[in-house]
Every structure is written in structure tokens, then in C-alpha cells.
Design a protein that fits this description.
- The protein has 528 residues and is mostly beta strands.
- It has two domains: 291 residues, 5 Propeller (Tachylectin-2, Chain A), CATH 2.115.10; 193 residues, Jelly Rolls (Sandwich), CATH 2.60.120.
- 1% of the residues lie in helices and 47% in strands.
- The protein is built from one helix and 39 strands.
- The two termini are 14 Å apart.
């Protein structure tokens, strides 16, 4: 009996939705409504293409439709720079353009724009060169002045918990002044306030910003009649008695029917930062989120709720995860481990396979730093991923396999050496020193695979009991088969919470040594 592939659906099909609406690491989300359409973007760090763009008609059912940035600016990102690259971006629609402003904490603030979010986005422009400026959000005021609100990364600049506003050119190409610190969370019980989003309503300027830390904090709202403050503030969404830790940064959006909603993330450790949706009710000009009691100006996250009233009903959807590699282009669920090169792969529409060309690995380098790992985000709390790889075109020194990449990482693979095929496993753990990741791998030879043309791998992710209450923990294991039926486990390890990035898994083909490189082909990558 053929197995059915799985997806995570936030839409319950009965008029309600469940949280999270997306069990995928779309960290630091921002979103807008333009007409009947909603667009959401997220961080992508060193993976490319960068800044995924998701589309929805009802705030519950989302699909990835594009990426805003093809290659991350800078020669540095020709190699994986884990935890660096594109941090929390913001998206806005203004003057007929879609604008995305994104930070690179070591380089500065960048802008890209497009008339059509499904189409080609402009080459990124550095609007402000700086180290440690993060979480930018543009704002165009009624009087024609334009502003940029930002936060700071202590790891780069030496301090944090400050919200800053600068004037900028309306075309987002440069800042016009040094700006002003408008709020200090260090002196207002709002330590680690960051991720600011600037809005205006009923004569108030509002800054939506999380504080208290990614895994343990809350949503703060700042408001003032003057854009530069002083700002009063309230905590409007807290974990309370729920299991939703965080609840962290996101976006305020409305519906054409007059409802207000808040999209935000929850950090679930190894799985990354998953997306939740909360109702908003305005009370005394404060946006109160989630479930709240009468007379209170703060709420707790909802686990299930009636879907937003957008004036119509839309099909139940979810981002793609499984792939039969039959298309002309690589599916939008896939990203590479660094700025990618087209010669790394080829889509063969006749054979309906993806062809991964072996690419030289750095001598003594880690698997985690291989550029041409083809990766996708975890899409479920538990799942099995299965793939089939052809070994006939491997050359001596080539290694092809299935990989799980996180702070702890591993792979099941086939290596060709001395004209023989060997089944191997690779395991390692990343460590960070001065924001630079490093790792060393342990490679074990399992058995020889003489005469094997195809190899089948499974990557299995299963929840296990954690020693720390409220902190999810997963067992990550790899199995192999030579016939696609009987499988044997050859590697397992525990998941480890990432440095802002959730675990990804996928396939790869790399080369050790200086000899000629071959290739592998895959017919599918399925999630069960």
C-alpha cells in the first residue's frame, strides 16, 4: 500500500484554525495585506535563495511563492556563515511598490523592492553601512517624511534593548540623520526589547516589539503621539498558563471586514521558530492579543480559534515539503547552505530526477560547512523523510547522501573509494566562538555496497522525553535500505537547539580529494 505524504495544516476545516498555523522555521516573520492578499517574509540567515515570501488569502493557509534575494550580498557568503547573513526583515507596500528592508548584522541595512511579489526583486542596495544594527522597519508618515526604526545586537555592537528611529529617504536608499534612541528597555523592565514594527493609528505611533528574550519573553506595545516619544508601554501578550513560550516578534495585519490579527513566532528549540496567529481587540487604544479577561489589557496565546473573516472561503493549503523532482525548476521548499551556483544541480524533466553534481569539499572541512547541501526546513514536529539516490555515476572521492543539519548534525551516505562503494555515517556538533561556527566530524564506515545501483535513506525525527520540562527534544536517526523495503538504522543522536536557526534536512553530493567529480540522481524526497 502506497504511503501518503504529510503536511502540517493550521486550517481545521471546520471554520477554526489551530496554532501553530505553520510548524516550520519561518523565523522573525513580518506581514502585510494588499487588497485581498497577504504576504509574509522571514529571516534566512546564510541560506539561499534568501528571504522566503509566503502568500495567503485568509492568514491561515500559506504557500511559499518566491524569494526576494537570490544571492546574499558579499563575497563572504560564498561559504556558509552560520547564524550570520539575513536577519529579521520587514515588508511594506508603499507608492505602488513592495519594499523589503533587511539587516545583515555585520554589514548593515539593505533594501530590495518589486512591483510584483511573484516576480523579480531588485538587486539589494545597502541603505546604511553599520555593524550591529538589526530588525529594521520602514515607515512613511502622513506628512511625507519617512523613517526607519531599528534595534541593536549586543554581539556586534556591545549593547542591546534599545529602540532607535532615524529619518530616511522615501526611496529607502539612505538614512538622512544619525537618529534618536526613543526607548531604553534596560531601564523600563523591557530587557532584550527588539524586532520593532512601526505603525500609526488614531493619532498614535505604535511600536510593536517583543522583549524578555526569544524563549521566555512577551509582546510589548509602545505608543506615543510623537514619533520620537516619549513612549508609554504595556505588555499585551504573555505566555501565562499556556505552553506557548515566547511569544515573540511578528506583524499586525487587518482584514477588509475590520478585524485585526497578529502573526508571531514561537521558538521550539531544535525545530526553530514556528508561526502562530492571534486575534487582536483594541481596548482604550491598546491592541490586546489572544485570550484575555474583561478589564485586562493583556492576553494569552490561543491554541484554537475561529478563522479570520476575510469575506470569502479559500482552499486548505500548506507549504510544499515532499518533492518528486519532476519540474523544470527546483521547488521553493529548497535552499542551499551558502550562495548557490547553478552548476551544482540540474533538473532532468525526461528522467524526472534532480542531478546533484559532486562539488569539492574543503580539506579537513566539516560536513556542516559544505556549500552545496540542498536543504529544507522541518515541516512537522515528527516525520520520516525518505529519498532514493543513484550511485552509478559516482567517481572515486565522491560522497552522496542524506543530511540533517543543526547544532548537532549527521548524515547517512555512500562513498566511492578505490572503485568500491562504502556505506558511511557522519556526525558532528557545531560550536560558536566570537560568532564563528566550527565543527569536526566523526566518520564511520558501516559496510561495503558492492553491485548496488540505488541506495534508499530515511531521516526519522521523533519526539522523546526531555529532562527539562517544557523544552521539546527529538531523536534524529538515519536508516538505509538497498531495496526500498527493509531498512536498518545506522546512526542516531539527540537534537540540539540551534543558534537562531532550526534544523534542516536534505540531500547532497560532495567530493573529497583532487580527482574528477561525478554526480548522483534522486527521484524523490518524501515526507511521511
Amino acid at each position: 500500500m502506497e504511503r501518503k505524504t504529510k503536511k502540517w495544516y493550521g486550517d481545521l476545516g471546520n471554520g477554526n484554525f489551530r496554532n501553530p498555523i505553520l510548524y516550520t522555521d519561518y523565523s522573525d516573520p513580518d506581514a502585510i495585506r494588499v487588497g485581498d492578499d497577504y504576504f509574509m517574509i522571514s529571516s534566512s540567515f546564510c541560506n539561499t535563495p534568501a528571504i522566503p515570501i509566503l502568500h495567503s488569502k485568509d492568514l491561515v493557509n500559506w504557500k511559499v511563492i518566491n524569494y526576494a534575494v537570490e544571492k546574499i550580498p558579499g563575497q563572504r557568503y560564498e561559504n556558509p556563515e552560520h547564524g550570520c547573513g539575513v536577519w529579521a526583515p520587514a515588508i511594506r507596500y508603499h507608492d505602488g511598490w513592495y519594499w523589503i528592508i533587511f539587516p545583515m548584522p555585520d554589514e548593515g541595512i539593505f533594501m530590495t523592492k518589486a512591483k510584483d511579489p511573484w516576480g523579480k526583486w531588485s538587486e539589494p542596495v545597502c541603505m546604511h553601512e553599520a555593524k550591529g544594527w538589526i530588525d529594521p522597519c520602514p515607515f512613511w508618515d502622513d506628512d511625507g517624511n519617512a523613517y526607519l526604526v531599528t534595534a541593536y545586537a549586543r554581539s556586534r555592537i556591545g549593547f542591546k534593548s534599545i529602540i532607535h528611529i532615524s529619518r530616511m529617504k522615501p526611496d529607502c536608499t539612505a538614512l538622512l540623520d544619525e537618529g534618536v534612541h526613543v526607548f531604553d528597555g534596560n531601564t523600563n523592565n523591557q530587557e532584550t526589547i527588539e524586532g520593532p514594527k512601526l505603525y500609526k493609528r488614531n493619532g498614535y505611533y505604535y511600536i510593536f516589539a517583543p522583549a524578555g528574550g526569544v524563549k521566555t519573553g512577551w509582546q510589548t506595545i509602545l505608543r506615543s503621539k510623537n514619533i520620537y516619544g516619549p513612549y508609554e508601554y504595556k505588555n499585551v501578550l504573555v505566555q501565562g498558563s499556556t505552553s506557548i513560550n515566547g511569544p515573540h516578534q511578528g506583524a499586525w495585519v487587518d482584514t477588509k471586514t475590520g478585524e485585526d490579527w497578529f502573526l508571531h513566532f514561537q521558538d521550539v528549540y531544535a525545530a526553530g521558530r514556528i508561526i502562530h496567529l492571534q486575534p487582536i481587540e483594541w481596548i482604550e487604544d491598546w491592541p490586546v492579543m489572544g485570550n484575555f479577561k474583561n478589564g485586562e489589557l493583556f492576553g494569552e496565546p490561543v491554541a484554537e480559534h475561529k478563522k479570520p473573516d476575510v469575506g470569502a472561503q479559500y482552499p486548505i493549503e500548506a507549504p510544499e515539503a515532499s518533492d518528486d523532482f519532476s519540474g523544470e525548476k527546483l521547488g521553493l521548499q529548497w535552499q542551499w547552505n551558502a550562495n548557490y551556483k547553478n552548476e551544482w544541480y540540474e533538473m532532468d524533466t525526461e528522467k524526472k530526477v534532480i542531478r546533484l553534481f559532486s562539488y569539492p569539499k574543503k580539506k579537513d572541512g566539516s560536513l556542516s560547512d559544505v556549500k552545496n547541501l540542498l536543504l529544507q526546513k522541518w515541516c512537522l514536529p515528527e516525520f520520516e523523510a525518505e529519498t532514493k539516490l543513484n550511485t552509478e555515476n559516482l567517481l572515486n572521492g565522491d560522497i552522496c547522501g542524506m543530511v540533517s543539519l543543526g547544532m548537532s548534525f549527521g548524515a547517512a551516505a555512500v562513498k566511492k573509494e578505490n572503485n568500491k562503494l562504502k556505506l558511511i555515517t557522519i556526525f558532528g556538533e557545531q560550536t560558536f566562538v566570537d560568532e564563528k561556527a566550527s565543527a569536526s566530524d566523526i566518520t564511520n564506515e558501516i559496510t561495503e555496497l558492492n553491485g548496488i545501483k540505488n541506495i534508499f535513506f530515511k531521516n526519522i525525527v521523533k519526539r522523546i522525553d526531555s529532562k527539562q520540562e517544557g523544552i521539546p527534544l527529538e531523536k534524529i536517526s538515519f536508516e538505509y535500505s538497498t531495496n526500498g523495503k527493509e531498512y536498518k538504522e545506522i546512526l542516531s543522536f539527540e537534537s540540539k537547539a540551534g543558534r537562531w536557526v532550526g534544523v534542516k534536512n536534505g540531500i547532497f553530493c560532495m567530493h573529497e580529494g583532487s580527482g574528477e567529480c561525478g554526480f548522483t540522481e534522486s527521484e524523490y524526497f518524501n515526507i511521511y
